[in-house]
Amino acid sequence: MAALDSASSSSSVASTVGSSSYDVFLSFRGEDTRNNFICFLYKALKDAGIDVFLDNENLWTGDAIGSTLLTAIEGSKISIPVFSKGYADSKWCLQELAYIFQCYKSNGQIVLPIFFHVDPSHVRNQTESFEEAFRKHEEIFEADIVMSWREALREVGNLKGEVLKDTM
Fold first, then answer.
1. What are the φ and ψ backbone dihedral angles of 143, each rounded to 5 degrees?
2. Which of 11, 79, 100, 158 is least enclosed by beta carbons within 10 angstroms?
């Protein structure tokens, strides 16, 4: 959280989404984490005065989801992908992650991954639930798209992050 505190007090100017700029963009698989971990993380960040983009809070009815999300990612100082067992099942999560990785490489965006009940090596190497998801994606999507998703998972999975183990 110290990284978030120093980043949010930075004097650098973030791009804007509409009339707002964001300190943090949260990327997560809704059905895995929205009603538990993400709710608590979002509240903690907001209570600390950090401006967070959360899809159900910041998307308006009628907004083009894809372009709005990409603009929010680009306009955020920090992206926090929350990897969960079902993260790679979602093409939206993978598209977001590929764009987050692009912003990391080209703009130096800070990326703070959280591994929620998944081992970072499963993300990096696309094993376990990630491997199962990619078997399906390879049947549906073009090879270059799947390769960009794999690269983003491999590279972001190699970043230092928080590992939250399932204690049950």
1. -60, -40
2. 11
DSSP letter for each residue of 60-127: PTT--HHHHHHHHHHTEEEEEEEE-TTGGG-HHHHHHHHHHHHHHHHH--EE--EEESS-HHHHHHT-
Q: What is the pLDDT of residues 104-145, one digit of tens each?
A: 999 999 999 999 999 999 999 999 999 999 999 999 999 999
CB atoms < 10 A from the CB of 117, how many? 16
Q: If you average pLDDT over every residue of the chain, what do you get?
A: 86
Closest CA to 100 of 24, 5, 164, 3: 24
> How far is the C-alpha of 134 from the C-alpha of 149, rounded, in Å?
9
Q: Confirm whether 31 is a catalytic residue.
A: no
Instruction: Report the C-alpha gap between 27 and 9 in whole angstroms.
Output: 22
Q: Which of 31, 74, 96, 142 is catalytic?
A: 96
Q: How far apart are CA 140 and CA 60, in angstroms?
A: 29
